[in-house]
Specification:
The structure is a single chain. The N terminus is likely disordered. Among the domains are: about 60 residues; about 100 residues, Arc Repressor Mutant, subunit A; about 130 residues, 3-Layer(aba) Sandwich (Rossmann fold), CATH 3.40.50. The chain has about 650 residues and is an alpha+beta fold. The strands form three sheets. Strands 8, 9, 10, 11, 12 and 13 form a six-stranded mixed beta sheet that branches. The chain contains 28 helices and 13 strands.
């Protein structure tokens, strides 16, 4: 007697059971993929594709679409969707969440509520899926499972077929699992794309961007995994580019994408890991926490990623992802607002960043990241001349020391301390030591590589400086600021051929940027291509407000004469602005006066203001060996000033 006949089921019931099993195995939803029109839904991976191209739809909208596809042509009530997809303990506004989900499905399908092709709204009741649903397999099976078998071998045939199917499915699952493990183990570079704001409130975009930034920071601590910096991935915010194309542009093995929803005192983050080359879904997770535990949530995501891609973590890395102190929600809110302004790097934005970071640590004195970014804000303010350096020094130092005390494993805190050593204390050796520690903790931290490049160039190590900028650019390949910093570094290191190549690459990435043409002109000038230099400078003048006023007269001048005329107009305007600012009681940096007089060609005034800058401890004094001061290099007073700064003899 065959084994299935020895069950407790009657003979006919056994046949019905196996017929149902065969029917389930052959159904589109059981196999994991259904097709409707030009669309295809992979239910197991949670991916919607149009003619083979993956669409950006995930989370609850996918689940709603699955439920509708289970019952094509039939009403699916709102109550059914609530019970199935939004349990009673869910904290979001159900009606708003469901409406948003259906709207996002319609956007992905190119559908509309007024003239539905796929999803019809039944007012006050629910939704109905229109159209036919099929499997991408061949013709559906024929025959009726209620038909009584005429021969006993029919039963054996069904059983044998079912066993073969299950064996085949099992083998396929084993192979797929092996392939997935292999893919996961090969992931060594990753991009965390901007989390989608599902709150329905555009004013919460800064919150989603801030959570993205923090998540990047946590994942970046999982070295040897290399993670792309925020400024590069934010280029893809709101875009619908296919993930393989994004990954190719960023040069990564995998992409992490997801969403964030905040409601009251709770926050939910969904995340899914996609292999870049094949657009294959590898892993997904959903995390819900109280806002106080947002750092713990982010570290849990990082820990799960490390586990999935088989990273062998060091003990200190393991400790980091398993420990996190609660953070006051309002303190975290202020921190995220501070990040928004900090990233803009203007005098006005840095003032706002300092205000929000200060509020953050006032509310949560044990928040290490708040202290680290506050210190970095004071440091950047020094570089761009926001306030008198000595007034900022003590505050920057206190904040960096507090950040390191709270979190010795913070790359941001070590970078803040390095910045203090470099730009406030002019102790470039100690600054480099702190930066090496920061890079050891987070090799993907582009800002640490940039500051290290800054210090190396100013201690007479141009080749090492350029290499650090290359590493910064590798971790932040699409950032305009990082690309422009690399271009400026090449010019400052007098690597003019490289500067030309980099400028051309920036123009390709950012064709609307005007300043890069001015920098490219400098590269051509120093390599003897004066005609090309003038052509590029003319492109700069055409897009610059001051430049347009001198462009016509420049047609009759040489490149050098044209740049001198432009510099004098700009310098006079700068001196007027500085005077007005000073009369209103605002701080004006002597470094700005020195550079303005240098552009005017007034060497005496330029040196006098540099001497004042020395007394003020302005960070420009570390740059006296750079090309911008070549005109002053033969002046005895300038030579004496360079010696007082204490730069290495080779640099002087």
């Amino acid at each position: 007697m065959p084994w299935f006949a020895r069950t407790n089921l009657p003979y006919k019931a056994s046949l019905d059971l196996w017929a149902r099993i065969l029917d389930m195995v052959s159904s589109p939803l059981a196999t994991g993929t259904v097709r409707f029109g030009v669309f295809e839904l992979d239910c197991q991976a949670g991916e919607l594709r149009k003619q083979g191209v993956k669409l950006r739809l995930q989370g609850q909208p996918i689940e709603v679409l699955k439920r509708l596809l289970e019952n094509p042509g039939e009403l699916v009530t709102r109550e059914d969707l609530r019970k199935r997809l939004w349990p009673a303990d869910t904290f979001v506004d159900f009606d708003q969440a469901l409406n948003n989900s259906v709207q996002r499905i319609r956007e992905a399908l190119g559908d509309s509520a007024q003239s539905p092709r796929f999803i019809e709204t039944i007012p006050k009741r629910g939704y109905r899926f229109l159209g036919s649903v099929s499997s991408p397999q061949t013709e559906p099976a024929t025959g009726s499972r209620t038909e009584k078998p005429k021969k006993s071998y029919r039963t054996a045939y069904l059983t044998f077929a079912a066993l073969l199917i299950f064996a085949g499915v099992g083998m396929v699952m084993l192979v797929l699992r092996w392939q997935q493990n292999r893919r996961l183990q090969q992931i060594r570079t990753m991009a965390v794309l901007p989390l989608e704001n599902l709150s329905g409130d555009p004013a919460q975009e800064y919150f989603a961007d801030g959570i993205t930034d923090e998540l990047i920071t946590e994942v970046a601590h999982l070295h040897p995994l290399r993670v792309i910096s925020r400024t590069s991935v934010m280029r893809y915010k709101g875009t619908r580019k296919p993930l393989p194309e994004i990954a190719r542009e960023l040069g990564v093995d995998a992409v992490l994408e997801g969403s964030v929803t905040r409601s009251g005192s709770q926050v939910r983050v969904t995340a899914q890991l996609i292999e870049a080359r094949t657009d294959t879904h590898l892993w997904s997770g959903e995390y819900t926490r109280e806002m106080r535990d947002i750092i713990s949530l982010q570290r849990e995501v990082a820990g799960d990623i490390a586990h999935e891609i088989r990273l062998q973590l060091l003990p200190e890395q393991q400790t980091r992802i398993t420990t996190a102190s609660p953070v006051d929600p309002e303190a975290h809110e202020s921190f995220l607002r501070g990040l928004h302004f900090w990233d803009q790097r203007t005098p006005e934005s840095m003032t706002q960043a300092i205000k929000y970071f200060s509020d953050s640590i006032d509310r949560e004195p044990a928040f290490a990241q708040g202290w680290a970014y506050l210190s970095n804000s004071y440091c950047i303010s020094n570089v761009i001349g926001v306030d008198e350096p000595q007034a900022e020094y003590r505050k920057a130092l206190e904040a960096a020391q507090r950040a390191l005390q709270l979190d010795p494993g913070s790359a941001e805190a070590h970078t803040a301390m390095a910045c203090i050593h470099n730009v406030f204390e002019w102790n470039l050796g100690q600054g480099q030591a702190e930066l090496r520690k920061a890079i050891e903790l987070n090799p993907s931290y582009a800002l640490a590589h940039q500051w290290y490049s800054f210090a190396l160039l100013r201690t007479g190590q141009p080749e090492q400086s350029i290499e650090e900028m290359r590493l910064a650019l590798r971790n932040d390949p699409l950032s305009l600021r990082t690309n422009m910093t690399y271009e400026a570094s090449l010019l400052e290191a007098r690597r003019y051929e490289g500067a030309i190549d980099q400028a051309l690459a920036v123009i390709e990435l950012y064709p609307d940027n005007i300043v890069i043409h001015q920098l490219l002109a400098q590269g051509y000038e120093h390599t003897g291509s004066v005609d090309k230099a003038k052509q590029e400078f003319d492109k700069f003048l055409a897009g610059d407000e001051t430049g347009r006023s001198v462009r016509a007269s420049c047609q009759r001048l040489s490149y050098i004469e044209c740049t001198q005329q432009f510099d004098k107009i700009e310098a006079k305007r700068e001196l007027i602005d500085l005077g007005q600012k000073r009369n209103k009681g605002y701080y004006t940096s002597p470094a700005d006066y020195a550079q303005a007089y240098l552009r005017l060609g007034d060497k005496r005034q330029a040196i006098l203001w540099l001497e004042t800058a020395y007394e003020h401890r302005c960070s420009i004094m570390l740059s006296l060996a750079l090309p911008r001061f070549d005109e002053l290099r033969s002046e005895p007073a300038f030579q004496a000033l360079a010696a007082k700064v204490g730069l290495p003899r080779a640099v002087q």
